[in-house]
Design a protein that fits this description.
By secondary structure, this protein is of the alpha/beta class. The protein has three domains: 130 residues, FAD/NAD(P)-binding domain (3-Layer(bba) Sandwich); 74 residues, no CATH class; 51 residues, Flavocytochrome C3, Chain A, domain 1 (Alpha-Beta Complex), CATH 3.90.700. Helices cover 28% and strands 20% of the residues. Strands 5-2-1-8-7-6 form a six-stranded mixed beta sheet. The chain has a two-stranded antiparallel sheet with strand order 3-4. Strands 9-10 form a two-stranded antiparallel ribbon. The radius of gyration is 21 Å and the shape is globular.
């Protein structure tokens, strides 16, 4: 028998959990995640969230920094929305119980990261992602009409086009009706149906041998959407975090660029600096610039 929900969310990172909390007042919600609920890229974010929170900062400056760092490839209308909505979304997280580090004589201890001309990085020690994930998970657990399906992996969407040959995949007549999921615990394929299906499955960084992405970032959600006829864009953009702690016998993990924001300097093995050759911001250049310079 199919599992029926008004809203089905695939993915349990900040995007999926936030959506679930927003829509649960309108109907039943099912959250599908292929691992434990907390296992997402959100959990591993260290540095913090960029938002205009200081008096010497402005939305226009945040937009300018973002557009310059994006090399003109960003959609400015989306950038403006993200920058202007930032403070309100921060307040939402705080109201849900998130704790960001306070500053000396200021509400927040604001850090600085690559590409930013001002201090605007709110953080919770160096475990900001985990603090956000913890907050959202607690809020989700407090909702009676949100059910969580851990260790369930999305296989394929059920669409009108797959049920009716007259409907072209990805056309305006096509729509998602549900999906097939693999229950890892029972090794059985289950069917779920819903009025609205949100795919918040993250990226595919784990397809590379060397990455700071979690093991769950395998891009299967993108493949599911593609097979269903969704338009896929910008797949050439994979971000490689430029600084990691390396050990030949252990899994590497990223070293937040807030270390450089507080004065850390990148050097070669002989102690020589090099970032000044590649960007005017030196060690606080955008991540893609730093990664290429190291490479």
């Amino acid at each position: 028998m199919a599992i029926e929900k008004d809203f089905i969310v695939i993915g349990s990172g900040v995007a999926g959990l936030t959506f679930a909390l927003k829509v649960c007042k309108f109907g039943s919600v099912g959250i599908i995640t292929k691992d434990a609920l907390e296992e997402s890229a959100t959990k591993y974010a260290q540095g913090g969230i960029a938002s205009v929170m200081a008096e010497d900062d402005s939305f226009e400056l945040h937009v300018k920094d973002t557009m310059e760092t994006g090399r003109g490839l960003c959609h400015e209308d989306f950038v403006r929305i993200a920058c202007r909505e930032g403070p309100a979304r921060i307040r939402e997280l705080i109201n849900l119980g998130a704790n960001f580090d306070p500053g000396r004589g200021a509400e927040f201890d604001l850090g600085k990261e690559g590409g930013h001309s001002k201090r605007r990085i709110l953080h919770a020690n160096d475990l900001t992602g985990w603090e956000i994930e913890r907050t959202l998970i607690e809020a989700v657990h407090a909702q009676d009409n949100i059910d969580i399906f851990e260790h369930h992996m999305a296989i394929d969407l059920i669409t009108k086009a797959r049920l009716d040959d007259a409907v072209k995949p990805g056309s305006s007549d096509d729509e998602a009706l549900g999906l097939y999921v693999l229950n890892h615990r029972t090794q059985r394929v289950e069917t779920m149906v819903g009025r609205v299906i949100l795919m918040a499955t993250g990226g595919a960084g784990k397809v590379y041998i060397y990455t700071s992405n979690p093991d769950t970032a395998t891009g299967d959600g993108i493949a599911v959407a593609y097979r269903a006829g969704a338009k896929i864009a910008n797949m050439e953009f994979f971000q490689f975090h430029p600084t990691c702690l390396y050990h030949p016998k252990a899994k590497s993990f990223l070293i937040s660029e807030t270390v450089r924001g507080e004065g850390g300097i990148l050097r070669l093995q002989n102690g020589q600096t090099f970032m000044e050759k590649y960007h005017s911001l030196g060690c606080l250049a955008p991540r893609d610039v730093v990664a290429r310079a190291i490479d």
